[in-house]
Amino acid sequence: xxxxxxxxxxxxxxxxxxxxxxxxxxxxxxxxxxxxxxxxxxxxxxxxxxxxxxxxxxxxxxxxxxxxxxxxxxxxxxxxxxxxxxxxxxxxxxxxxxxxxxxxxxxxxxxxxxxxxxxxxxxxxxxxxxxxxxxxxxxxxxxxxxxxxxxxxxxxxxxxxxxxxxxxxxxxxxxxxxxxxx
Length: 182
Fold this sequence. Notes:
182 residues, 2 domains, 3-stranded antiparallel beta sheet
């Protein structure tokens, strides 16, 4: 069994293999013996592969978002809503898959997926479900977190007001394209 540790020494990231007695702040430690095929199979439900790799704090909010997406997709009779939810799924799918792959292959996340753009995209696409990720992120100031927590409901009301007004036209368009009928 090989352990990899990612550490910050003098402001620079360093990766050490088999370093159990290292006396620096350890940021990430992941067992390298996890099976790649299991991680790839679990990646189709974003967050599940991170849970398998022991990243519980990061995976639980993503799993909650996925539960909301799945419930909306399964219980909706609307093709337009399913199309919107599929796009949200793709947004939440990419980064956890990338992180899981990097953790298994390299033992450390080589890119920072906790960037502002990812949290903002999740806030704009999943709304209320992404607020826990916002408050766990260290990339936003407290004022920024409060502003986004207020902005999300305002954008939610504006977006759904638009959907209510134009829903029938969008639904008819998608049904005509799919040839399902009116």
